[in-house]
Specification:
Blueprint (H helix, E strand, L loop, with lengths): L4 E4 L4 H17 L3 E7 L12 H22 L5 E7 L2 H8 L5 E6 L12 H9 L4 E5 L12 E5 L8 H14 L3 E7 L9 H10 L2 H19 L5 E7 L2 H7 L4 E8 L2 E3 L2 E3 L2 H9 L4 E5 L2
Parallel strand pairs: 1-2, 1-4, 2-3, 4-5, 6-7, 6-9, 7-8, 9-12
Antiparallel strand pairs: 5-12, 10-11
Helix pairs in contact: 3-4, 6-7, 8-9
């Protein structure tokens, strides 16, 4: 079954930028586009919000207008719309199970602060069962041209980052772009080395050659599967978030992984994804690990 690209729309400029990005991605990949508004009836003291049916009609009309804008730009694109009733974050997270990816908007902010990742976006990213792409309001099609890479963070062995690499290579192939695979490394405390790990490092010629070999091994099956995608291997000492952000300026899309982490206050997205989502100037895809 072909899973559509789902765009969450609420009428804001951020969500409309996300919808435009999702439509271009759907055209590139030859996938249908599903435009969703997650809604529940709310009353407002300051304005006449109407009754539930009136609000629902406003939502449907706004969704239909957004879909018409997309089909006017992309006449051959298959577009469907759906109003999902419920708390937006929970509803969109649930909808992600049937989507190839879910695309949401996020607000840009000052250069130092970066993105304002709202509670809805953060919860969807943390709980989604398929990739979630966050797009800022100022995103433009021109940012996808000019030789910019699809940047992907790789860690661990090939299995640890397989889904993240898959998403990055598929995105690059659809765009005719290169993949810049980034692997960051740091020197752990000496007591963290086991005799076995010390032996591996010694055989590799030191920590950095070991990391380069690990990255090359993780990329090998994806190079074979996507022979037309040019790959740049980037190994650098530093924290993963810092190294990824150092190359974000040359990216048209950044792809990072997300492992399930639960705490007393709910799901967490991890420090690397959190940092990149808040500060990268390009759209960011967060891919859950199985």
């Amino acid at each position: 079954m072909t899973r559509p690209i789902t765009a969450g729309v609420d009428g804001s400029q951020e969500s409309l930028a996300a919808l435009a990005w999702a439509a271009r991605e759907a055209v590139r990949r030859g996938l249908p586009l599903r435009v969703v508004h997650a809604w529940r009836f709310e009353t407002h003291e300051a304005i006449d919000a109407g009754d539930p049916e009136t609000q629902a009609r406003w939502v449907r009309d706004g969704l239909a207008e957004a879909a018409r804008t997309v089909t006017a730009r992309h006449p051959g694109l298959e577009v469907t719309t759906d109003v999902v009733e419920g708390v937006p974050a929970a509803a969109l997270a649930a909808e992600s199970a049937g989507a190839g990816m879910t695309v949401l908007g996020t607000r840009g902010h000052a250069a130092v602060v970066g993105f304002l990742l709202g509670s809805v976006g953060q919860q969807v990213v943390a709980e989604a069962r398929s990739p979630v792409v966050l797009v800022r309001a100022g995103d433009r099609p021109a940012a996808e041209a000019g030789g910019r890479d699809v940047v992907v963070g790789q860690h661990g062995d090939g299995d640890d980052s397989a889904e993240t690499l898959r998403f990055a290579f598929e995105a690059a192939a659809a765009r005719g772009a290169a993949v810049r695979a980034v692997r960051a490394w740091t020197l752990p405390p000496l007591f963290a080395y086991s005799p076995a790990s010390l032996k591996l490092l010694d055989e590799a010629g030191g920590p950095e050659p070991y990391e380069r070999r690990a990255l090359a091994g993780a990329l090998r099956p994806w190079r074979e599967r996507f022979p037309d995608v040019h790959v740049v291997e980037h190994v650098e000492m530093g924290s993963a978030g810092q190294v990824l952000l150092s190359v974000a300026g040359r990216a048209q899309l950044m792809v990072v992984g997300r492992r399930d982490r639960r705490s007393a206050v709910g799901a967490r997205i991890g420090s690397v994804a959190h940092g990149v989502l808040h500060h990268a100037p390009c759209p960011v895809a967060v891919v859950p690990h199985e």
